[in-house]
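User: I'm putting together notes for a lab meeting next week and I want to include a structural view of one of the chains we've been expressing. I don't have a solved structure, so I'd like a prediction I can at least talk through. The sequence is below, exactly as it appears in our construct file.
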Amino acid sequence: MAAVDAVPAEGDLEHYLRLLGGCTCLDFVNSVDPRTGTRRRDFLHGYNDLITWAQLAGMLSPAAWKRLHELSEQHPQHAARVFRSTIALRELLYAIFGAIAAGEQPTSADLHTLQNTYLEALRHAELQVHDGGFVWGWPEGTDALERIGWLLTQAAIELLASPQIGRVKMCASAEGCGWLFLDTSKNGSRRWCSMEICGNRAKIRRLNARRRTTAATAESLPSQEPA
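Assistant: Thanks for the context. Below is the predicted structure for the 227-residue chain, given as structure tokens.
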């Protein structure tokens, strides 16, 4: 199992956070960087990191963050349990969407676990008016430490049931990345989580390989004797 390092310092989450997945559930999966490789860095250490990530990802208002932070301070053991279960959800989502990105079927056990997680979340939901219709949701003022997990589970279910599920991909970096993203390009040709990071690394690697090939070819040619 690859080692998982912590983010260098508490409070640096906003500095290191990159939201490149195109969907909150995929961005949550990408809170480990890289996903593949020998040394991985986990951005989330505890419940406070979880709700801070959620606020930065646009899932919580500052007021909702404050309420959940105060609630976690009042019930630290419960908050710790919720954090562990939400991290378990993150790994479940990585297994499911990682399989889909690889062109494989998620296991029945994983899908069954996600289904049960969603059914449990719906026990706390209510029907809300949305765009002229109704959706299941959790009010902004819901003071439940589990709220982030509920929202992430709902996002995952909606993506699985969406026509866009075939556009879930994994970063093609050969140097170890494994981040997942929703390819929304017109022709479905996106390969990298970020062209500026993994894409440029791949370009540099190809350039260096061509230079080494050119140098090796030049060394293998017979030297020309002066006339």
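A couple of points you could mention at the meeting. The chain is about 50% helix and 10% strand. The chain has one domain: 3-170.

User: Perfect, that's what I needed.
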